[in-house]
Amino acid sequence: MNIQRATPVNELLAKLIFLILPTAAVSYFLLINVNQYYSILQNQALQQATYLAAGMGIAALFYSFRFRFLLPFLLLVAGLYAVYKGLDKYESGEFDAFFIARQFQVFAILFSTGWITGWGFVRLRYWSVIIAASLLTACIAIIAKENSASVYGLLRAFTPALLYSIYIIFTAEQIYNYKDKSKKFWWFLTRRLVFFGLLATLILSSVVYLMRGQIKETVANYGGGGKAGKNDMLKENKDGSFDLKDYSRLSSSLSRSKELLFCAHINNFFPNTEIPNPLYLTAFYFTKFDTLTETFERDSTIPYNDLFEPDPSKIPLFYTKMDSSVIRNSLGAKLRNTVEIEVYSRKLSPNTYLAPNVGYFVQPIAIEKDFRDEFKSAFRAKSYVSLLNSAYFVYNSPNPEIKKFQEQRFEVLRQVTNYKGIDTAFMKYYTFMPRNEKFKSISDLAHKITDTARTPVDKVIAIRNYFLSRDENGDRLYHYTDNPGIPDLPSASKLLYFLNENHKGYCAYFAGATLFMLRSLGIPSRIAVGFLTEDRSDKNKGWYWYYANQAHAWIQVYFPGFGWLDFDTTVGNDNENRPTPQPDGTPPMQPPSAWLAADGVVENVDTLKKTMQMSVKQLVFHDVEYKLSSPVIIDMDMKVAVIYKDSVPIPISTVHKGDEGTAVSYAEALKKMLAYPNENGAALVKRFPAPTPIDEVYLKKKETVQPKEQQQVAAQPKPLQVKKILLTTAIIIGSFLLLLLLMPGLILQYFIARYNRAKAAGHKPYWAYRAATYYLHMAGTFRGNWTPMQYARETVDPQLGTSSFTAFMNVYLKTKYAKQALTAAEQATVNGFLKPFLQTASKKIRFKKRFWGFLNPVRSIGFFVMPDDEKEM
Description:
Layout: H1 8-35, H2 45-63, H3 70-88, H4 94-123, H5 127-145, H6 151-177, H7 182-210, H8 212-222, E1 232-236, E2 242-247, E3 260-266, E4 281-286, E5 288-290, E6 295-297, E7 321-322, H9 325-329, E8 336-345, E9 359-364, E10 377-386, H10 391-394, H11 400-413, H12 424-430, H13 437-449, H14 456-468, E11 479-480, H15 492-502, E12 504-505, H16 507-520, E13 525-531, E14 543-547, E15 551-559, E16 563-567, E17 596-606, E18 611-621, E19 624-637, E20 642-645, E21 648-650, E22 660-665, H17 668-672, H18 681-686, E23 692-693, E24 696-699, H19 708-711, H20 722-757, H21 764-778, H22 788-800, H23 804-818, H24 824-831, H25 834-844, H26 847-853, H27 857-863
Parallel strand pairs: 11-12, 19-23, 20-24
Antiparallel strand pairs: 1-2, 3-8, 3-14, 4-13, 5-6, 7-9, 8-10, 9-10, 13-15, 15-16, 17-18, 17-22, 18-19, 20-21, 22-24
């Protein structure tokens, strides 16, 4: 048998289809995940994968002509860098310049990476090993960030990269080693790849099936659970502030444990004493059990919703927002009173509202000027709080005094013996948990450890005591740890492993396990998320300091008549497992009472007289809010006023008409002025001093219209959907194949267009020759080793039954070699040659032959590797 190496064209096309295209598809899969963690990428994975694929494809074609690597690559990098620096200085607007430059930077990096990858596939035999290792490493890094709660989730994240790594090494070797004739090359390669795919699928399925138990246990212990964005808790924002979101990365990050987030003054003391009674601060609850992800999530449709969630940053300074419905929905009237709290934020997001259970009121307040460098925002809150709620009651402390407080609380709650008469929908919702075999072990454990308890509170105590119990050697049965796996709100699988196997976890594990056991006993319960409060101050009574390691999760239990009460079953809250408390600082001085806070729009500013006119639609005067039916102009004296924008003082000269803000006055003249009974806001404003003395102005940050792509950054990343990925991958592959199929026809149209635009005395003969010979080549009339004239005289014209191609060839060869000017007759020959020739060829050559020829990209590439005499003059 005559053995020869597969043709260079076949080998190049095979690498494009079987190496570069799958690499682009897997890169797209990885980029989808990477976009979820890096906002600069703008959630444009498809576009970015296209950049990478373009770099690989162009480099593969370029280096197939044996160019050297370094110089072209350096020129490419230099060109991209020059464009980037030019865009970085683009002056259409600071934001636009930044946005465009960053987008081009992403393109340049991905295109350059693709360029190197394409070069490696064409030139280096073992390049596939390097690419496989790189993508597999990237996939593992992404899995480390992802929260896979199930075997399916883990396999979905890992399998594509694993299969790709094996596939790319196998396929690259097949392409390199095969030496049979080119006509058999594609059949050989396709057959081998199909066999590989079936074998890999069979082996992987067998391994997963045989090791499913071990994999499931590993996933359960490793961490992760819930839908994307559904259980995030402590989240760092772009500006460095922290939000309490839906993901329980509680006190697991030691780098954040010493970071002060905020301080608060809680006006709550034990009756008739000056002893502070600290309270946990609540942000939200996990209430709904999702059977699909097997974890608890937030739910805005809960029955009797008693959660108040305002955004303090959206409320004008000194204005108030209140929702009394949450008080009714708390379903607790016994032993309740109102507690006031002031929160001063240093690193806590200004959007976050915290209050003791149940918050119902918020009022943004100013920060005293000496503390504005330390604290960025502040608000006052009010809560409807049970007298039975206390952080002292929540701590699992051996302190005898605290235990005494706890026993007094428990004795009161023993009045509740059952839940008869409670709303059925309420009970069904807050006691729901699956009743299948998997959860039966939790129910059995709960009934076992509470078998002697008769009242709901005694059952809660029994569960708490179970977590505090010791084994026969005196060692604790359960241990507190910051990192039993990936720290988040654990799924049911991880809680089962926690209860039955390792007995190690942080607050979310203890809270989640307690919730399951309480619900299996028919006791309404939910997980509260917020901050635990520790009283560490001997001097500043009622002041508390909150660090990142105090982000916490605990249990709230419902008792008829008393409402929802806090319980914490986490072990080691105040022993050696807790981080050493940080020394508290000096609390901020509370600013003087603001007699006037006017919210409006600046109409006029006089920088010489230091006066300002503001159109006001609402104002607060002596803590009473007035809403005006139509705007009223207030003349303001700005001689002593300090103007702030984004917490930074600015001169009055930078204030312009149209600026929005809040003007605040502590003036004695307004203190002495009182509103008349039933006086409306417009009449009140008429009695203000003219001009009205103003002490502070807080200008609002203007909202700018962002490009559509930038707005998408704030959107919560959607959960990864396998069907969507497969569909998108199929579209990419289909588009690539369609482009390959259309390429021969597009090339012909390009030649014809160049012919039509050229002049007969110029390059028109050359483009006519290129178009005609390309058409014949794609239609199956190959030139082979004939000279151009032999090809015309002995192959083309006899086949088509014409003499026009030979006549044209005489003119073409004259322009190519003789370099003589064409006569008028020769120019007429060139001008009238191509269209009639193509029409004749299409009639003489069978349609089927032409159709399949023009769908063959391999044949098209072969046309461009003809001898040198076919290249452009």
